[in-house]
Every structure is written in C-alpha cells, then in structure tokens.
Amino acid sequence: MGKALNEKGQVFRNGTAWEVFSDLLMESKPSGVFVITDENTHKHCLHYLLKRIDVEIVPEIITILEGEIHKNISTSLKVWEALSEKGADRNSLIINLGGGVVTDLGGFVASTFKRGISFINIPTSLLAMVDASIGGKNGVDLGPLKNQIGVINLPEMVILDTEFLNTLPPEHITSGLAEMLKHGIIHGKEYWERIKNIDVSKKPEFEALIWDSIEIKKEIVAKDPLEKNLRKTLNYGHTLGHAIESYFLEAPDKKTLLHGEAVAAGIVLATYISMETYGLPNESLLDISKTMFKYFPKQTFSKRDIEAIIKLLVFDKKNRNGQVLFVLLEDIGKHRTDCIVSNDLIYRAFHYYKNF
Ligand code: GLY
Predict the structure, then answer these.
(1) Which residues have CB under 8 Å from 31's CB, separation 6+?
(2) pLDDT by residue (tens digit) across 216-258?
(3) Among 11, 53, 184, 271, which is most exposed with the fewest C-beta within 10 angstroms?
(4) Of the candidates 167, 158, 107, which has an alpha carbon nearest to the alpha carbon of residue 130?
(5) Which one of 103, 125, 131 would you pick to mutate in the ligand 1 pocket, going by the greatest count of ligand atoms within 8 A of its CB?
(6) Is the beta carbon of 135 within 6 A of some atom in ligand 1?
(7) Using an 8 Å Cβ cutoff, are 101 and 38 in contact?
(8) Is 137 in the pocket of ligand 1 (CB under 6 A)?
(9) Contact 257, 248 (CB under 8 A)
(10) Three-state secondary-structure class, residue 144
(11) Handedness of CA 80, 148, 270, 67 (dihedral sign)
(12) Rounded distance, CA 248 to CA 256, Å?
C-alpha cells in the first residue's frame, strides 16, 4: 500500500475520522479491503462501517469467533488462510473492526501476512478505544497465557467513533473503565480526581474523558514505543491482573473474567503492595480500593487459587532473568518499574483485598 496520508498510528475521532478514512482509501488505492470482525461486530457494527467505505472495491469480510478464548494461533491460521484464498496481496488493507480481541489478533495477522500488510483499527469496545487499538501492540495468547506471541507494529490509523459504544452491554463499558482508571492512577492526582467519579451516562463528559485517556496512552507510547521503561507503567495492575485472568479462563470452577474485571483486582493488589513497599499513603490506597470496588465486584480467591495465580506470574512478559517484575507506585502519578515483590507480600495483598 502507498504511503499513508498521515503519520502511522494516529487516532482520529468521530466525524473527522471518517473523512480521513475515506481520504486514505482513495489515496492508497489498496488492491483489496479485508474487514476482520467477530460475531458481535459482524452483527452490530459492520453495516455502519460498510456505509462509510466509498471506494469501488467490495470489501471481503472475515469473521472470527467472539471471545478471548479464540485469540490464538488457530484463529490466526484461519484468517491467514482466508486472506490467502481470497487473494490478499501486499497492497491489500485489513480493517480490524472490533474489541481488543479483534484489534490484537487482526493486527498480528496483518503484521505477519506476506511479512506485513497495512491495517487500520476501528475499535468498537471501550477497552479497545482507550487501550488495545492504540500503540501498536498486536498478538495472541498461548493457551491461557495472555499475549505471549506478537509484534509491535502501528496501524495506519485508528478510527475512534464513540457511536459504537451504544452496541455494547454495560459490563463491557465497565471493563474498559478499568484501563481509564489505570491511566488516572499512573498519570497524576488531577486526572485521577476527574476520572474516579466518571459517569458514563453523561455522554459529553464521558467522551471527553475517553479522549483524555487516549491522549495519556499516546503520550506514553510516543516517549517509549518499544516498552523499554516508561511504557511499562501502562502495565500497572496487569502483572497479577493477567495471571488472574489466565487462571479464571481455565479453572473449571471459575467464571471467565472480562479483562477489566481482572485488571481491577490486579490494581487493588498492586496498590496494597505499593503501600507496603514504597510507602504509598494509606489514603491513596483507600481511595483507589474504594473506587475499584465501586465499579467492579469482589472476586473470591482461595489459598489454592492464589498459589496457582502466583505460579502463573513466571510467564509475565516484563520478567527478566526469571524474576517477576512489578510496576508499583510511591503515590498516584509517581511510578516505579522493575520492582521485585516477595510471594509473602502477594499473599498479604490478597488478604487485604478479601477483607476490604
Ligand atoms: N496495554 C499496554 C500497552 O499498550 O502498553
């Protein structure tokens, strides 16, 4: 595909976004357009997108099964095969229309097909809008282990249209809030004070906060695109959060958690650990814990669950030389990376979580 109109990875919102999208299609003249959807976005979002593709090419639609459980190599294989059968070439364009599963997997498939073809992200979930679709992390899970296989490669552009949020069930909106709250915690007290009382029913305010959240993420990614240091802070709450999510995905007696639900628990745990390790003030711990429990239900962890979750920490992508490394806080907005945490302290954090 020819040079994109704009610097790669830019985010365009609402009305302007569709104009830029149209210009990109006209100017780059892709040999084929392939839209990746899942079952839900095929049903609820595809018609909205198709109305906005005004080039002569009739897009091919490739639909994957819905849910994190399908974010894996076997789904990727099916998409690579479909692209090949439908004649995609290096001048083709992939459009990822969906939540984090579609943008992660679609970006990975595009980045590896014929050594990489162009793709655009059109996130339809709050989580994908404020996190997954931004910053070029693409990949799939390895068994239950999150995002173990992947590449960092920016989309041509990200189209942000908050109209898609109307297609989401409420728990998926809440799931995305976890990442917005995380942005508040790592960014600083002023933004945290605004975001912690977010009211999703007040549309203009909610949309302004979504945009601010994206700006925070973009700023961090721009400073450290390859996650050498600062970008690690975006993993706040994710070390334990990912392990909890993986564990719940496979444990027969557990309900699969949405990403945000697992991250919300991970944030409370990491904040307790921050209090014990770096003296994060008690009032900040209380404030963050109360906020998380306001939006997210408490999960139950038995001793056996905690042991299994701790075992999963060895697969965290931030680890070095076999050591599990956490992102922690001295206070809201004051982060520390590469922190070593003992298992005893993790147990105490789960104790705090249970008794809050
Ligand atoms: N989701 C964390 C990052 O993009 O770095």
Answers:
(1) 89, 91, 92
(2) 999 999 999 999 999 999 999 999 999 999 999 999 999 999 9
(3) 53
(4) 158
(5) 131
(6) yes
(7) yes
(8) yes
(9) yes
(10) coil
(11) positive
(12) 5
For 285, the token pair is 């711990």
CA of 344 to the centre of ligand 1 (A): 28
In words, the CATH class of domain 2-167 is alpha beta
* Strand (E) or helix (H) holding 181: helix 170-187
Task: Locate 281 and state its tokens.
Answer: 């003030």
Taking the C-alpha atoms of residue 52 and residue 46, their distance in angstroms, rounded to an integer, is: 10
Pocket flag, ligand 1, residue 139 (CB < 6 Å): no
Per-residue pLDDT reduced to its tens digit, 55-105: 788 999 999 999 999 999 999 999 999 999 999 999 999 999 999 999 999
Element (H, E) at 300: none
Please name the amino acid found at residue 25.
L
User: Atom of ligand 1 at shortest distance to CA of 137?
Assistant: 4
Residue extents of the structural domains in the chain: 2-167, 170-355
Residues 265-307 pLDDT 10s = 999 999 999 999 999 999 999 999 999 999 999 999 999 999 9
Distances (CA, A) of 333 to 88, 156, 234, 283: 45, 31, 12, 14
pLDDT per position as a tens digit, 305-348:
999 999 999 988 878 888 889 999 999 999 999 999 999 999 99
CATH of 170-355, one of 1.20.1090.10, 1.10.4160.10, 2.30.30.50, 3.30.365.10: 1.20.1090.10
Residue ID of nearest Cα to ligand 1 atom 2 = 234
Which atom of ligand 1 sits closest to the CA of residue 220?
Answer: 5
Q: How far is the CA of 326 from the centre of ligand 1 (A)?
A: 14
Domains 2-167 and 170-355 share a fold: no
Contact 271, 280 (CB under 8 A): yes
